[in-house]
Amino acid sequence: MSSKDWRLSLNLALILVPAVFVVWGDAEAQGSREASVPRRTATAPGKPSAAVQWTPVLPPLADGVTELSFGKLLVTPIGPAGLELSADAKKAVGKPVRIVGHMVRQMQPIPWTFILSPVPQSLHEREYFLCDALPASAVRVHMPKGPQPIIPYRPGLVAVTGILATEGPEESDGRSSAARLVVRPGDTNAMVFVTAYSPSDRAAMPAAAAPSDAPSSARNPRNLQTDTPTR
């Protein structure tokens, strides 16, 4: 090895070795900070510590409307027959039901429709087409045709009321689902966005913990303001 190569190697070592120790020190400090931060839990006297569970506050169901959760929409686990509606869902076909979920944020939505999912989800059809992680129980919601074809996206939970129907012809985007929800024209309460939450066990929750343990949408309803519509 020439003297020039030897000096170059020495200089690289002098640069890399301190950098390794700096990165290692930062990682150790971050781990110590995370370990020292206590988790906020609600504890009742004589009971073990447990996190407060918050439930959405929804208006009462209208007459003739049935509550249908995503967990009761399909037969689980999915078998050789593919996606099958559960017994409860089959009884509700053709009748008004209310499903609570999250609007799926789409880059290329179909006019007068949106997708309702049990979990928050974003789709980028232009980049991934149908290669996404959309849950199998996601429901296509068909809105009445009006002057605004693209339904504005809003984060947070939304309760949608409509007629439950089995999936008909394939949608124009090539996507299909086990069921669809058809909103009736003139139903002004078809979509109700959740802006408040309540603790599932008030007795187990200290009053001082309520503001900080509640979901962000419960503490600040402005989080649910209409987002810029995707076009």
Q: CA-to-CA gap between the ends? A: 63 Å
Give the beta-strand count.
Answer: 11
Q: Which assembly state applies to the chains in this document?
A: single chain
CATH superfamily of one domain: Nucleic acid-binding proteins
Task: Output the structural class.
Answer: alpha/beta
Share in helix: 10-25%
Poorly predicted runs: 32-49, 204-213, 217-231
Task: Summarize the helix and strand pattern as letters.
Answer: HEEHEEEEHEEEEEHH
Mean pLDDT: 74
Task: Sum this structure up briefly.
By secondary structure, the chain is of the alpha/beta class.
Topology:
Blueprint lengths: L2 H34 L17 E3 L9 E2 L19 H6 L3 E8 L1 E2 L6 E5 L4 E2 L1 H4 L10 E4 L14 E10 L12 E4 L8 E3 L3 E3 L10 H4 L2 H4 L12
Parallel strand pairs: 2-3, 4-6, 7-9
Antiparallel strand pairs: 1-11, 3-5, 3-8, 5-7, 8-9, 8-10
Textual characterization of the structure:
The protein is α/β, with parallel strands linked by helices and 231 residues long. It has a domain at 58-193: Nucleic acid-binding proteins (OB fold (Dihydrolipoamide Acetyltransferase, E2P), Beta Barrel), CATH 2.40.50.140. Helices cover 23% and strands 20% of the residues. The chain has helices spanning 3-36, 87-92, 125-128, 210-213, 216-219, and strands at 54-56, 66-67, 96-103, 105-106, 113-117, 122-123, 139-142, 157-166, 179-182, 191-193, 197-199. The strands form three sheets. It has a five-stranded mixed barrel. β2 (66-67), α2 (87-92) and β3 form a beta-alpha-beta unit. The longest helix is centred in the first third of the chain and has 34 residues, at 3-36. The chain starts with a helix and ends in a 12-residue tail after the last helix. Residues 32-49, 204-213 and 217-231 have low confidence and may be disordered.
